[in-house]
Amino acid sequence: MARAVLTLALVAALAGCATPPARPTATPLPSAIPATSAAVTVEAVPTPVFYTYTVVRTYPHDPEAFTQGLVYADGVLYESTGLYGRSSLRRVALETGAVLQRRDLSAEHFGEGLALFDGRLIQLTWQNNLGFVYDAQTFDLLRTWTYPTEGWGLTHDGTHLIMSDGSATLRFLDPRSFAVLRELPVTDGGQPVVRLNELEYVNGEVFANVWQTDWVARIDPRTGHVRGWIDLSGLLTPEERQVADVLNGIAYDAQGDRLFVTGKLWPKLFEITLKPKP
User: What is the CATH number of the domain that holds 187?
Assistant: First the structure.
C-alpha cells in the first residue's frame, strides 16, 4: 500500500508513464577511498536495460480479487488478496481462474505479500505488523509472527525470505525465525527507488512492482542496483482499466520458464515473455 508522502522524483516520473525515468549523466563514486595495501575495486553503477513484453497467453482472473501477492507452484496459483473485510488466501486454477481453496482473513486484517517456502505459505498484512504461516496443503494456520514495518511484498531466493515495505529497502529474513539478516537499499543511478511492492525471485533477480505504476524493476539482490525496467503498460484495454485497479501480481514458473502478471481487480492474468525495448 502507499505512504502518505511520496518524496522522490524518480518514482514520480515513473508513475503512469511509458517513458524511461531520467538518469544521471555520471556514475557517482565515493568521495574518498581508504588507502590499503590491496587494490580497492569500485563497482560501476549499471545502466538498466528497458524491456517490453509479448503476451503468450491470457487466462481468466477473478475481477473481485484485490491481488496483493501471487505465487505459482505445481500447476496452480496461490494468491493473497487485500482490502479490509475482503482479504483472503487462495489456491487458484491457472487455466480457468476458479478458486479451488480459500481461507478468509478476519475483517481487521488487510492481506498483502505471499511466499511459498518449504511447504508453508507465508502471508503479510499491511499495517497490522503481523504475518501468518499456513500449511500449504490444508491452509491450517501454523503460527504468526510480527515485524515493525508495514508489509507489502514477499518472495524468497531459496534460502531467505525477501520482504518489501513500500520504501526503497528490501529485507532478507531467516525463513524460520523471521529475523532480519540483511537490509538492501534499492537504487537506480544512485537514486533510491521507493514504493517497492509485490516481489518475485526470477533467475537470480528480484522483480519488484513499483506501486501505482506499470513498471517492474529487475533488481540485483547482491548490490541493490536496478538492472532493468519492464514496461507493462497496455495489458488491459482502456475499457478494462476503467473498472480495474493498478498492476500488482508477479508469479514465475521456474520449471516451465513462464512469467505471469496481473493486477488488483483485473479480469485477466497474462503469461508474458520479455524483450528489450528498441
Answer: 2.130.10.10
In 166-266, the DSSP E strands lie at 169-173, 180-185, 187-188, 191-192, 196-202, 205-210, 215-219, 226-231, 247-253, 258-263
Q: Is residue 23 part of a domain?
A: no
Q: What is the pLDDT of residue 13?
A: 40
Q: Is the dihedral of CA 85, 89, 93, 99 positive or negative?
A: negative
On whether residue 27 sits in a domain, the answer given is no
210, β-bridge pairs: 196
Quick check: helix, strand or coil at residue 267?
coil
Number of independent structural domains in the chain: 1
Percent of the chain residues topping a pLDDT of 90: 83
> How many Å is the maximal CA-CA distance in the chain?
64
Whether residue 55 contacts residue 272, with contact meaning beta carbons closer than 8 Å, is answered with yes
Q: Residue 41: inside a domain, yes or no?
A: no
Task: Name, in order, each residue with C-beta under 8 angstroms of 108's C-beta and a sequence gap of 6 or more.
Answer: 84, 128
**169 belongs to a structural domain:** yes
Give the pTM: 0.84
Quote the pLDDT of residue 231.
97
The residue range of the domain holding 240 is 47-276
Q: Is the pLDDT of residue 91 over 70?
A: yes
More confident residue, 15 or 246: 246
pLDDT above 70: residue 14: no
